[in-house]
Amino acid sequence: MDSTPRSAHGKDDLRPKTHASGSSYRRVPDKGSVSMLGLGMVIGAAIGAGVALLAAPQSGEETRDRIRDRVRHIRGRDSVWDKLARELRRAASTRRKRALVRRRREEEKLLEKERAERDARVPPP
After folding, report:
1. How confident is the model over 64-78, as pLDDT tens digits?
2. CA dist list (Å): 82 to 47, 59, 74, 78, 95
């Protein structure tokens, strides 16, 4: 397509334009750009949430529990007794995990001690 400006008579118009032709930019709705912006915001929020979950200092289970607590609180379905029950379950779970870790450390120390004793034994000549 020829991009040379033409006058109303079809002749080449070599005079510079003094004003813009067409409608104002503000009046032209660009639905494609608006929808892409919205889609970008949704995708960005999803990626941000994923990164936040991966970078969270607590375990996945604890993070999910805290998210559930916040949603219940926002919805107004959070009674004091339900919250207390969840906190007690969470505390019991934490205590069990710590006891398991302590027990594993003790077992590892015992195994290491047995290995050292076995290695220290000198076979009779």
Report:
1. 878 887 888 788 777
2. 31, 22, 15, 7, 20
